Amino acid sequence: MSEQLPPVYSGNGGYMAPPSPAQSPKASQRTGVFTLVGMVVLIFAILVILNETMLKIRHVAVIGNHQYSWEDVVKAAGLDRATSYFTVDEKSIARNLQSNRYLVFERMEKVFPNGLTLYIHERKPIARVQEMGTDYVLDEDGMVLERYAKSQNSELDGLMFVTGLKPKEIRVGQVIQAGTSLQTEAFRALVREVILQGITAEVSELNVADPENLYLITNDKFTAHLGNVTDLRAKVGTVRAVIAYLRGEGSAGGMLEADIPGEVVYSPLSP
Fold this sequence. Notes:
The structure is a single chain. The protein folds into two domains: about 60-120, membrane protein fhac (Ubiquitin-like (UB roll), Roll); about 125-270, Rossmann fold (3-Layer(aba) Sandwich), CATH 3.40.50. Helix content is about 30%, strand content about 25%. The protein is built from five helices and 14 strands. It has helices at about 25-55, 70-75, 90-95, 180-195, 230-250, and strands at about 10, 15, 60-65, 105-110, 115-120, 125-130, 135-140, 145-150, 160-165, 205, 215-220, 220-225, 255, 265-270. A hairpin with a 5-residue loop joins strand 1 (about 10) and strand 2 (about 15). It is elongated.
């Protein structure tokens, strides 16, 4: 026979029955805690199962590759079948990809529950410099892509020759260290403008020795003096149009003073 609890005096002249054990606040709190812990454990177990089955990166798309295959880019990024959707690390992927001097990581997008898209671009040989009898191939940022001895000069056909950089340091896999930061800025600005205006195949030389007096030389001996990088788009665009006109008129080479946007003074070669 269970022991009965004594009645409790209510303070107003009467008595009331004590709360039953089932109604104890402490017991209710303990029950709630156990329920919450159970739910957390269950949710955690579900997440673990999902992560091991559905939330692994299974589909990777690569945008921007041309010379490198999809497989090459994914391998270079360090991705494998153990990579989790939740723990995939963008900084690690960027670092892995850019350890290849030809690959530049731009961004990534996760596609729930198991997809990933990598946006990259590939560095392209665009120019060359010569130092101590050795040729170095550069991209538009000045990244040194390759190094060639004189006997391999055939590999450099079609690349613009950059003069006047006077590099302090030049190593494959690193951006060239020009004599001054202004030369580096001038190099990048001029190369990119020539690329943008589609005349890389026409230009044989770019000179950036003096960032205030840049010039380019075409394959058919037109030399265009451009001044500094200010309004470079207008200057190069005007030079391009004037040279095209002069070619149509049968002119072969000459000097173009084009340091004022929209204006060109042409002097033909001396006979």
